[in-house]
Amino acid sequence: MPQTAVNIDEHLLTERLLEGDPRARELAYDHFGPALFSLILQVVPDNEKAGEILLKVFVKVFQDMHAFRRSGDATFFGWLMRLTREMALQEATGIMGASDGMVFHDKNLLQRFANNLPEGKRDIFQLCYYKGLPKEAVARILGLQPEEVSAQLRETMIAFRKFLED
Amino acid sequence: MELDHYIKSGIIESYVLGLASVNEMEELQHMRRLYPSLNNEIMLVERRLERTALTEAVLPPPEVRERIFQRLSWTTEETIPPGHDNGASNYTFINIHSKDGQHITVHKWWKLFFILVFILSKVCLFFAIYYFLKYQQLEEQKRGMQNVDKQQVIPTK
């Protein structure tokens, strides 16, 4: 569901969430839920399982909002995004993920970016991002040196910076 | 200049996507303390991703929302310390939560109620059989007595 950009006061929202305000929780879910669900679907392309993961993410977020404060992260969405990917990767263990078949559609920003990468860098990015594999494991899978994987991933991130700026 | 080079190295994007290694994370935290303006750069990248993510959002199944708030309300009830409740929740709920919407959630007193109804129905069944047999026995006795009476009446004729 494409969501129109609604300006919400992030500071006020997080303060209310820290207080456990039920209205703030509903607002946070309605605002960020669909975006995070889309993110989960990239790792676990199954509506039902992705829904379960989304449920776990929000229950965890609402029960321990102080974790956001402790993290020192710059934005609430940035924190949510990393937490969601991390939880989706944990739950995706043993599930056929989007990266298993290496079939990607241009449905969202990251997939569009990945599809435009040269093959080698695309494989590294997909294994690191969608599979959550450490660089050493990616190096073993692709028969490369870990330093080579790190270097290529760094170049990919520079390319991603330019991609975002464009 | 050093900061500019650091920003252009793609470390922020790596961190924002959750791809930074432990060493890179530590380095970034150190740089954030040295150069607070780095936080603005991180914020800019995260805001860009947020805007895109909101426009590319996918509506989750509607029951997910309901289940999240249901679970949170259960947790809130469980965490209320004794003596701090509103006096109306001095009982336990059996939380039956199904995925397919074919089940319902009922209070635990229903279990006791059904057990009592079951026992009562068995007692009634026992008495029904008992009185039926008793009735049959009395009927037979009655018929036997009527036969005796008839036999006693016939010789007088």
TrEMBL record, chain A:
* The keyword Disulfide bond appears for this protein: no
Recorded superkingdom: Bacteria
Q: Which family does it belong to?
A: Belongs to the sigma-70 factor family. ECF subfamily.
Q: Does the keyword Lipoprotein apply?
A: no
In its UniProt entry, what is this protein called?
Answer: Sigma-70 family RNA polymerase sigma factor
Q: Which InterPro entries match?
A: RNA_pol_sigma-70-like (IPR039425), RNA_pol_sigma_r2 (IPR013325), RNA_pol_sigma_r3/r4-like (IPR013324), WH-like_DNA-bd_sf (IPR036388)
**Could you tell me the Gene Ontology terms of the biological process aspect for this record?**
DNA-templated transcription initiation
What GO annotations for molecular function exist for this entry? DNA binding; sigma factor activity
TrEMBL record, chain B:
* Protein's recorded name: Uncharacterized protein
Q: What taxonomic classification does the UniProt entry list for its organism?
A: Bacteria, Pseudomonadati, Bacteroidota, Chitinophagia, Chitinophagales
Residue stretches spanning the membrane: 109-133
Entry keywords, A to Z? Membrane, Transmembrane, Transmembrane helix
